[in-house]
Amino acid sequence: MQFPEYRPRRLRKNEVFRKLIQETSLSVHDFIYPLFAVPGKDVKKPVASMPGVFQQSPDLVVKEAQNLTALDIPAILLFGIPEKKDEAASGAFAKDGIVQRTVRRIKEKCPDMLVVTDVCLCEYTSHGHCGMIEKGDVDNDTTLEVLAETALSHARAGADMVAPSAMMDGQVGTIREALDEGGFETLPIMAYSAKYASSFYGPFREAAESKPQFGNRKSYQMDPANSDEAIREMTLDVGEGADIIMVKPALPYLDIIRRAKEEFDLPVAAYNVSGEFAMIKAAAQMGWIDGEAAMMESLTAIKRAGADIIITYFAAEAAKLLQKG
After folding, report:
1. Contact at 8 Å (CB) between 118 and 94?
2. What would the mean pLDDT of 254-270 be, rounded to a whole number?
3. Is the pLDDT of residue 215 over 90?
4. Residue spans per domain, the chain
5. Which of 150, 170, 263, 275 could hold 200 in an S-S bridge, CB 3.0 to 4.6 Å?
């Protein structure tokens, strides 16, 4: 087909035609909204680098969950910041830890809200790394035991799904075994399978108070230059029992999302991370871009690349726009 016989603009000339042939459609049901729980009551502390995002006490997290339910957002991803941190990450698996308490309260008040819990140790360790430190480095196999104990404690508190994000080799299989032995064989795992050592995590580290106190995370998070390695990581997680595989971050790694969708017959999640959110917010505040349009374009791009699930701080804003039609 060649011009003038074929004119693509024929089907772009008004909104009705454009919607009729639209190939990718966003839905509120695509979204998971991250929340940060902190100890206390009636605590709502703004995250300076993430406008509209807060650290909140469990009572206010419950209210937030109720508001999200009213917007038809189906799920939240819960992070916790404990009162005290230590080298053993003891707050991560405590029966009455911040995540465990918050999960119980959410499920009491919002039983239909899908509660996904992040399973990592960086928020709970005094050194800020995602695992146990042995001889100055993160020890993989010792960390697996703690991750499994943490995931099991979340399941016992009522979590609907766990999401291991520490990027330890074997973490999915170890957690799957612990859940099965603990009577939670039907509880799914959403694996942070391709989690890159990204510069886009800065605002999150403020929100989660999880900045490493020494070194960096490049020995366990992935090199941004690598694509085939992501497929190897996903293949391992699928073999160990992952129910959903995730790519993090999303926008700089749309090619990885596409490869994941083509390679695996599993749902693919993508994490639209804090730095991606903060950049759009900052540029919009300066009047350099249309923030709402950039938000929706970004989310559509993630969905178009192949993501079935989008974890995003934009979820509530995008849901309101989608409801308007």
Report:
1. no
2. 98
3. no
4. 26-324
5. 275
Q: How many CB atoms lie within 10 A of CB 282?
A: 14
Q: How far apart are CA 302 and CA 304, in angstroms?
A: 5
Q: What angle, rounded to 10 degrees, do the helices at 254-263 and 228-240 form?
A: 50
Residues paired with residue 31 on neighbouring β-strands, in sequence order = 310
- What is the structure's pLDDT at 210? 76
Query: Is residue 130 helix, strand or coil?
Result: coil
**CA 318 from centroid of its chain's CA atoms:** 16
Contact in structure between 39 and 57 (CB atoms under 8 Å): yes
Residues marked active site are found at: 195, 248
Please choose, from the candidates 324, 247, 297, 319, the residue with its C-alpha nearest in 3D space to the C-alpha of residue 33.
319
Q: Is residue 312 helix, strand or coil?
A: strand
Pairing of strands 54-56, 44-46: antiparallel
The strand pairing partners of 191, in sequence order, are: 245
> Residue range 239-263: average pLDDT?
98
Q: Rounded to an integer, what is the distance from CA 273 to the centroid of its chain?
A: 7
